[in-house]
Amino acid sequence: MSIQFDVRTRVREDLRDLVPYDTHPYPNVIRMDLNENPYPFPEAVCQEIIKKLNSDVFTRYPDPGAVELRQALADYNGVAPDNLIAGNGSDELIQLIYLTFGGNDRTVLIPVPTFSMFKIHARITGTGVEEMRTGEDFAVPVQKLVERARAGIDIVVLVSPNNPTGTVIPPEDIMYVLENTSALVIVDEAYFEFKRETIVSHLNRYPNLIVLRTFSKAFGLAGMRVGYLISNESVIKELNKIKQPFNVNSFSQLAARTALKYRQLFDEQIGMIIEEREKLFMELQGLSGVTAFPSQSNFILFRTPVNSDKVYQELLKGGILIRNLGKVPGLEDCLRVTIGKKEENAIFLEKLGVILRDNK
Ligand code: PMP
């Protein structure tokens, strides 16, 4: 006799309508969809990583405390190793924060539009979500945010520079939130290296602050999955109780700390990305009917006079993959393009120009 097992009814009721993250399995396209670093990983860094590889990297469990990586990160950020936790991408750390401080009857307040995983991980961890729409220019209404946060919000999310808008939250606004609510405030600085404005230097003043960073963007290590968070020791202590012990694998720890050692090589790439971004921004603005939003990051959000589904599909047919955000409230007919290499940006722009002309 076989047992009755209807998996759909066994899944947690609050998670039944989740959809898996779309991995865009398109071969042979120029990828301008995930805000990665488009340049090759520097040869010198690659060689040093290979030189340091040994049998233990493969056979032994990784260092659960990522001691060497955290020391390198402490030097990079002017904090102590005890202010740091490394994660399997900052995605893992978002979930870790919710697992530790969310769940039960806790609620997170998220200004939107922003990085979707803040909401998805909240749902997965059973954390309530309240969204607050930002204004026309995507500025976070901090006064309104604080008023709401004071009335029963446990966690506040601030992403600066924000994804997908590229908008920066002024440091004084971030401090206003930190000073006027007892909620835990996550400041996601995934794109820090493209703006170099950080709240980390004020860490000592704010017991409720957690800063998130990643190696996936400026450091070109998206494939290694390394992120980190910076906070006060007391917060770190609590998070470490919940963290998976061997969360960052040995190879990734080695890659990340070697990348940090050679960070001036990435500075060159970051400079080129910023230069290309400014050029592409002007060019997008020059296309009839297009509105490009100023960005302090490695991508640009823009609105087209043509339906964004159409633009997305036509670009894909032409071998270019970008991000269609047309279904996000407030971002109707908007798309996000990651800054590519000079020649990739030129191809993108040319194809976009043709699509807009043909669909007038
Ligand atoms: N935060 C923001 C704002 C992001 O845009 C991203 C990546 N798109 C992440 C976090 C996640 O980065 P990671 O690769 O470190 O998980």
UniProtKB/TrEMBL annotation:
Top-rank taxon, per record: Bacteria
EC number(s) from the headed UniProt entry: 2.6.1.9
Residues found modified as N6-(pyridoxal phosphate)lysine: 217
Gene3D superfamilies assigned: Aspartate Aminotransferase, domain 1 (3.90.1150.10), Type I PLP-dependent aspartate aminotransferase-like (Major domain) (3.40.640.10)
Catalytic activity: L-histidinol phosphate + 2-oxoglutarate = 3-(imidazol-4-yl)-2-oxopropyl phosphate + L-glutamate
RNA-binding among keywords: no
Names of required cofactors: pyridoxal 5'-phosphate
Annotated ranges, domain Aminotransferase class I/classII large: 29-352
InterPro entries the UniProt entry points to: Aminotrans_II_pyridoxalP_BS, Aminotransferase_I/II_large, HisP_aminotrans, PyrdxlP-dep_Trfase, PyrdxlP-dep_Trfase_major, PyrdxlP-dep_Trfase_small
Name of one Pfam family that matches: Aminotran_1_2
Gene Ontology molecular function: histidinol-phosphate transaminase activity; pyridoxal phosphate binding
Pathway(s) the chain acts in: Amino-acid biosynthesis; L-histidine biosynthesis; L-histidine from 5-phospho-alpha-D-ribose 1-diphosphate: step 7/9
Subunit structure: Homodimer.
Family: Belongs to the class-II pyridoxal-phosphate-dependent aminotransferase family. Histidinol-phosphate aminotransferase subfamily.
Protein name: Histidinol-phosphate aminotransferase
Species, as recorded: Thermincola ferriacetica
Name of the coding gene: hisC
